[in-house]
Design goal:
D-Maltodextrin-Binding Protein, domain 2, transcription cis-regulatory region binding, 11 helices, WH-like_DNA-bd_sf, LysR_subst-bd, elongated, DNA-binding transcription factor activity, LysR_HTH_N, Arc Repressor Mutant, subunit A
Length: 297
């Protein structure tokens, strides 16, 4: 098939070496040479200058390389569109999600996705934002859904897919809940219950305290939002959590919220990807498409 021959030619040009191209394509070196000879015979021109050190394109080879890249790109696009017509999206999808997203959003999203694409083998890892970013960095994960930014410059941070409201919560009957107008000075010297370092929720809490210049009397650290929530219900202190996590407890009265001068606190949820490893897979593309649909719904 001409597409296979063009793939061989493009790989040889990009690697500037027949042996390396053969390794990448899992072909023998004579097999690679045969593909190139067939192309040169077909066009009636020399396409490559060969030497013991490297391979360079001739003028004709340069033209063919540019066109071959376009042809291969169009072929791949056509293949994907035809697969979609048959609703055939296969392969594996390794998703990482921070705790809030993984426990309160991802299950509903995945239910829709696997019903539409049952042939995709989905693996889920729920951890804090820092751990998910590391999984993308080491190529252990195809896609990450997180609550904060990442320190890895090579990781692509896609536009936010959802806004998440954050709530300052107290145990039921806390003295602050009886006050109508609360300003930042009233939040000094409180006992706080935090998530662990590396958590997006912890990063938001730390930034909130820093922005208001609050003094913290004492703090406790839990490595899950459920632990933080139960600690506040038990009267251990106050905390900052997503409304997704505590909406049932607010409705039941087990927790109460504090609003500071009618401020609305929020953060964004992001999609993390490594463009070198995951952007070209159909499973990832379809999952992101489903994610955007889920956001609109």
């Amino acid at each position: 098939m001409i597409v296979d021959t063009l793939k061989v030619f493009v790989t040889v040009v990009e690697q500037s070496n027949f042996s390396r191209a053969a390794e990448i394509l899992n072909l023998s070196q004579p097999g690679v040479s045969l593909h190139i000879r067939n192309l040169e015979n077909e066009f009636g021109v020399k396409l490559l200058h060969r030497s013991s050190k490297q391979v360079k394109t001739t003028e004709a080879g340069h033209i063919l390389y540019a066109r071959a890249k376009q042809i291969l790109s169009q072929y791949e696009a056509a293949s994907e569109e035809i697969s979609l017509l048959r609703n055939e999206v296969t392969g594996s999808l390794k998703i990482g999600a921070s705790f809030t997203i993984g426990e309160y959003i991802l299950p509903r999203l995945l239910s829709q996705f696997v019903n539409q694409y049952p042939q995709v083998d989905v693996h889920v890892n729920i951890a804090n934002t820092e751990e998910i970013a590391h999984g993308i960095h080491t190529h252990e994960l195809d896609i990450g859904l997180v609550e904060g930014e990442t320190e890895y410059p090579e990781i692509q941070l896609n536009p936010p897919f959802m806004e998440d409201e954050m709530v300052l919560i107290t145990p039921s009957g806390h003295p602050l809940t009886s006050l109508r107008n609360i300003n930042s000075s009233m939040l000094h010297d409180l006992v706080w219950v935090f998530r662990e370092s590396g958590s997006g929720t912890r990063a938001f809490s730390d930034q909130f305290i820093e922005n208001l210049g609050l003094r913290v009397k004492r703090s406790f650290v839990f490595n899950s939002s459920q632990g933080v929530k139960e600690a506040v219900i038990a009267g251990l202190g106050v905390a900052m959590l997503s409304r997704l996590v505590i909406h049932k407890e607010l409705e039941s009265g087990n927790l109460q919220s504090i609003q500071i001068n009618e401020q609305r606190l929020s953060r964004n949820f992001y999609v993390l990807q490594d463009p070198k490893s995951s952007l070209d897979t159909m499973a990832v593309k379809m999952f992101i498409q489903k994610l955007r649909q889920f956001e609109n719904e």
